Amino acid sequence: MFDALTRQPDDPLLALIGLFRADERAGKVDLGVGVYRDETGATPIFRAVKEAERRLVETQPTKAYVGPEGDPVFLDRLWALTTGEAGKGRATAALQTPGGSGALRLAADLMARMGTKGIWLGLPSWPNHASIFKAAGLEVITYPFFDIPSQAVLFDRMMEALAGAAAGDAVLLHASCHNPTGANLSAEQWRAVSDLIAEKGLLPLVDIAYQGYGRGLDEDAAGLRTLLATVPEALVSVSCSKSFGLYRERTGAIYAACSNSETALSVRTNLAALARTSYSMPPDHGAAIVSTILGDPALTADWKAEIETMRLRITTIRERLAAGLSARWQVLTAIREQEGMFSLLPLEEADVLKLRAEHAIYMPTSGRINIAGLKTAEVDAVITKFLSL
Ligand code: LMR
């Protein structure tokens, strides 16, 4: 019976983890999967996370199920962190999910249930976006978002394309720290796209997975907040993987901002029913950590200070890379203005494979680099190897 199945290729991004691990060369450099690393090459556990875990070990009264919706206190605290004033008092349906991917899949399943036909996706995007939407049965309609050779956001073309969307279509937007380009919309562009979405009756799905790694915690959510203040309905997928360093704990949430509380209740029951037939109930350890941190002003302050240090480290590496790489690719001065973990270099697949084979530099064949994976001490050597291509 199993022979009805054909073997599937590994996920190309996740396969890099194994390839890198198996490489025995000294000085190998991992610019692959989006994981923050410090100057020693370690992915640290935030001090506040460790402290929250210690408290949970001592005080958590039970491991009984949390229910399909998850913990409402976690959901409220994370919503406040993400949306600030824009989310206050808004009728919202919320569910704790297994990571940001779980949130995106629930959003896609909900849209399929609502009869949403197409979801508009700017290219390039995180490869799993299209896969998740297609797996839920949605039609993915693409539009140009970013031009790699000029490192420019194609805003006019994006607006032209979205002007052709049908009422009821969905549109995926990255809140900030765009994956894979690091290029983001300006405040003015967020206003314009929010107005267009409201005018055309589109449903925005905003993916926020890197809050705190770009320009700052509030700054990285500013576009999303503008959108929420403009549109009657929106979906927001939140990942705590990077912002709280909880990758393997699979911590996230899906929120639906609704125009009234009756609709919010209906959306919540649908999300809960979808979760029940998928993974039933969400993992809770990561959510309990986030809730503990956000419920304690001292822990929150410490977490904010630590993520700010990480953000500044990335900014410094961006400056060094921009200065070094622009000697060969003038346009790569843009790396300085881009933000978050990623930039997308104008490389051919052959260049990427050569860097891997000859210099043990690992990155996906798209040319995306995880800047947060670089140590300061490696930057000059990595630049030299890129310039030697
Ligand atoms: C990435 O893009 O590298 C991360 O979001 C990890 C993942 O799940 O792909």
Order of strands side by side in the largest beta sheet? 2-10-9-8-7-3-4
CATH topology descriptor of the largest domain? Aspartate Aminotransferase, domain 2
Structural class: alpha/beta
Tally of domains: 2
Radius of gyration: 21 Å
Q: Globular, elongated, flat, extended or rod-shaped: what is the shape?
A: globular
Q: What is the β-strand count? A: 13
Largest sheet: 7 strands, mixed
Low-confidence stretches: none
The CATH architecture of the largest domain would be 3-Layer(aba) Sandwich
Helix content: 40-55%
**Relative strand content:** 5-15%
Which CATH top level class of the largest domain fits? Alpha Beta
Oligomer: single chain
Please report the number of helical segments. Answer: 14
CATH superfamily (homologous) name of the largest domain: Type I PLP-dependent aspartate aminotransferase-like (Major domain)
What are the SSEs and their pairings?
Layout: H1 12-22, E1 29-30, H2 47-59, H3 72-83, E2 92-97, H4 99-114, E3 118-123, H5 127-135, E4 139-144, E5 146-147, E6 152-153, H6 155-163, E7 170-174, H7 187-200, E8 203-208, H8 222-230, E9 234-239, E10 252-257, H9 261-276, H10 285-294, H11 297-325, H12 334-337, E11 342-344, H13 349-359, E12 361-362, E13 368-370, H14 376-387
Parallel strand pairs: 1-12, 3-4, 3-7, 7-8, 8-9
Antiparallel strand pairs: 2-10, 5-6, 9-10, 11-13
Helix pairs in contact: 2-10, 2-11, 3-10, 4-5, 4-9, 6-7, 7-8, 11-14
This protein binds (2S)-2-hydroxybutanedioic acid (LMR).
(2S)-2-hydroxybutanedioic acid binds at residues 13, 33-34, 126, 128, 179.
